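Hey, I was hoping to borrow your eyes for a little while. No rush at all, and the record is pasted right below:
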Amino acid sequence: MSKLKLSVLDQSPIHDGKDDKEGLLDTIKLAKKCESLGYHRYWLAEHHNTPGYASSNPEVMVNIVASNTNKIRVGSGGVMLNHYSSFKVAETFNTLEALYSNRIDVGIGRATGANFLTARALHEQNGNEYSQKAYELIGYLNQNLSKEHPYHNVTLTPQNIKPPPVYLLGSSESSSTLAGILGAGFVLALFIGTHNRSTKIIKDYKKSFVATNVLKKPKAILAVACIVGDTIEEAQFIASTHTYWKLQAFTRPNRDALLSPNDLKSVIENLSPSDKKYYDETMNTMILGTAHSCKKQIEMLALEYDVDEVMIVNVTYSFQDRINTYEALSRVFDLNKNNKI
């Protein structure tokens, strides 16, 4: 596993009780840092009307991160395609690829990234259209929509741009199989929810994969939540911020912004038995511990799921705590030696 690639999925958390916009500025700082540390890609997430997270527009953040870095691949993780016209998304990423040749990834997902009312404000379409939109997006980028499609003759501007690879993000067989059929990459989100994700998801993806001019072979990635501390107890303490935020997200109609671990001590002690159970289950889905123990866990997962790349999701109250994790993982994986970009 010495050649395992590590990448970053950034949800642009708002750190240290700062103003919301600082979450976007911290994303730029972290992207530059992670490029220097040898990470392979840097993807930006999409969340709407979500306390604690700053980025609602990943394509804008892809542009600004790419313009502030030099070599690292940059992409969306992901654009929530049901909200948007597949042609407009194709135009956007075709333009980004024209500006940053061979550095852009198009990550898409079917979730809303928003509450019901906000999703309606975004003109969300019926979720059943996701498969068709994903097909159209890839067809527009590759200029190979079937002749029967009503928009077969519509072309992207600027023209003659090498199409960027498309990745589907998901946590189930439906997304992985669709990715394979479409000849797209697939990212299995182990950091979402607490349900079991079978290795069969990746196996089915590889089995169903149809080669394209953009991806000749299946490309599967794992996305995991990971926090490094000097001890596992310190990592768990730091992780309480994200764990409690997730507890609110999945069990409460409203949620707070990111709270500091110190402020959460008494809150966690007074959780109801059912909430404490969900809190513990959520924390158990994260990779927590020292740098060396986290390395072992990441390598075991990569071996179990048969992937050569893992994306690290890291949400903390303190911005410095996030930097510490990415620095520590870079050291133990020797990324600047192994992950030549």
User: Anything to note?
Assistant: The longest helix spans residues 232-251. The CA atoms of residues 232 and 240 lie 12 Å apart.
